[in-house]
Amino acid sequence: MHLGPRLVVADHVAGKLSILDIRTGRTTARLDRRHLAEHAGFLALPRDRTAFVDDRAGELLVLDPYGPDHGRPAVEARVPVAVPAEHLAADRSGRRIAVTTGLGRNWTAWSDQLTAVDLAADGGPSAVRVRTRTGEPGVTFTGSPDDPMVVLRHREPGELTAYRHAELMAAAPSLPPAEPAYTLPLPDHDGHGDACDPLTGGVFAAAGSGVHRARVDGGALVSADTLPWDVGARSGGRGYYLRLDAARRTLWSVVRGGPAAPGHWPDWTNDAWWHHLDSGRGGRLGLGPGLVFRLAVLAAHVAFARVHPDGDELILVSTGGTVPAVSARLPLPPMAGAPRRGGTPWDGVQRRAIAASPGASLVAVTRGGHGEVHVFDAATARQTALVTVPTPLDEGGHLALITPGDASPSDPVGR
Predict the structure, then answer these.
(1) CATH topology classification for 89-407
(2) pLDDT confidence tier of residue 191, bands split at 50, 70 and 90
(3) Cα separation of 288 and 269, whole Å?
(4) How far apart are CA 324 and CA 251, in angstroms?
(5) Contact at 8 Å (CB) between 303 and 354?
(6) pTM for the whole thing?
(7) Quick one: which of 17, 60, 74, 10 has its CA closest to 38?
(8) Contact partners, residue 87, CB within 8 Å, separation at least 6
(9) How does residue 219 score in pLDDT terms, banded at 50, 70 and 90?
(10) Is 20:26 a contact under the CB 8 Å cutoff?
């Protein structure tokens, strides 16, 4: 049986999750009372699986989106983890996972818990919690496949700390403090965005001064030259998101500039920033004013959703040529409750989630508050489907798009 892409739609406010066949619009599975940790997002795993953290139940769930098509349950595994989940990442095999904790619905950092997970432990999936450092750390993996290391990216002060996953799993009960095997200071206190390269083991941390690089070498965590945000004739701003297009071995981010005050968000500038890991070539492309945050990687494009009072749009950047270029700007229907001038673009307003598969030309964008997901084909720059779900998708919800055998697990950081 040839199975097409599966779309996972999570309404983290309503506590609902649906798995749909995009080709037919058929819902293949539903989960109730599941509140996805929206900031941590979905983590792609091998064998067409995906994982997320239920922030209310305190569980990591491994989904098998194609399971219901073959008589298997949609939930393959459930593992207890510390919450509120801030970030999650996996090693190259997808067996070992790490989950960090953040603020949740609190104004100041209060949790220092890190959860290490082994999905293939003797006796079934296992999790161990330890204490590290209070904050909102990002997380990636590095090291050899036989001895993977969990790397945390801290703010205030900036620092990378690396822990052997095997040692975390061997920690005693009752939340002992964990001592890192390696540390590396970061010059910034404003880190925001993480990526790792499974091919080389390099880890990347976005901060105000650029993308900081590190790797394990000779028994130490060592740094390399920082990649600047300023490229060519375009300068200013900093990236607030970082993602790897593993097929083209390219890092992507959205560089935001303009006035700092959140109330002036319609005047923020946004550039797509890219850097090819092997050639060292890079560049920036203007996307337009407003709010652009997360991006999605397709087979031959990278997609961005831009929110602005004058109209929202989906922006497609072609990656098939020598240099990336904007290939289409597609209007998106307005959202009731969208951000307004003078207010912040994230508090008490509707947003958009975006998802794609590196094995297909499809990209999905939510219409927060309306229970709609608009699906486009980047190859034709046209909308191909409108998916509706029984909940409003307040705050934009969250999406994952899976194509059988795609390269999503090659980006082993939750999105």
Answers:
(1) Methylamine Dehydrogenase; Chain H (2.130.10)
(2) confident
(3) 6
(4) 12
(5) yes
(6) 0.97
(7) 10
(8) 39, 40, 99, 100, 102, 137, 138, 139, 194, 413, 414
(9) confident
(10) yes
Among the listed residues 322, 328, 361, 413, the one whose alpha carbon sits nearest the alpha carbon of residue 40: 413
Q: Which two tokens stand for residue 403?
A: 């194509």
Q: Are 133 and 112 in contact (CB under 8 A)?
A: yes
| pLDDT value, residue 1 | 59
Would you say 326 and 344 are in contact if contact means Cβ atoms under 8 Å apart?
no
Single-letter code of the amino acid located at 311: G
In the block, tokens 């499809």 appear at 362
Domain boundaries, the chain: 89-407
Cis upstream peptide for 266 (omega within 30°): no
Q: What is the dihedral of CA 34, 36, 37, 43, to 10 degrees?
A: 130
* Token representation of residue 252: 């992507």
Name residues whose C-beta falls within 8 Å of residue 146's C-beta, 6 or more positions apart in sequence. Answer: none
Q: What is the dihedral of CA 397, 55, 116, 148, to 10 degrees?
A: 10
